[in-house]
């Protein structure tokens, strides 16, 4: 019996258009942010690699948590995975927005002033990657429950 693939490309018809758009947008934003971080590391040389990696890992952790902001579920009528904001998601959204507002000051406690923006970009890139990873894992889990993959 052949092993089932974890690839979502074959099953994209089972994902709501808004959800696909959101995941693609997060992927694009994370690539742009990673590009900025790499530019800061190798060309401007304001950000040490260790700070960038730490920022991305911190952001990845926060992103996987914030991916829970939207509750994913199977819509029986449309036969697709849809997302909606639930109470826990609203709480996560409020906490996430509070973090965004104080991010620069919070980062400023740990790094020198010239690096605050670059570390902020690294954390934001990690958050976006984490949201993509968390959402993708939730989609795969739902498709497995439905025995689609």
The unreliable regions are: none
Structural category: mainly alpha
Number of helices: 4
Cα-atom radius of gyration? 18 Å
Order of helices and strands: HHEEHH
Shape: elongated
Total separate domains: 1
Q: How do the strands of the widest beta sheet line up side by side?
A: 1-2
- End-to-end gap: 14 Å
Strand content: 5-15%
Helix content class: 55-70%
Give the overall pLDDT as a whole number. 87
SS elements, strand count: 2
The biggest beta sheet reads:
2 strands, antiparallel
Structural account:
This protein is mainly alpha-helical. The protein has helices spanning 17-44, 49-66, 87-108, 116-145, and strands at residues 70-75, 80-85. The chain has a two-stranded antiparallel sheet. Strand 1 (70-75) and strand 2 (80-85) form a beta hairpin. The longest helix is centred in the last third of the chain and has 30 residues, at 116-145. It is elongated and about 55 Å long. The model has no long low-confidence stretch (mean pLDDT 87).
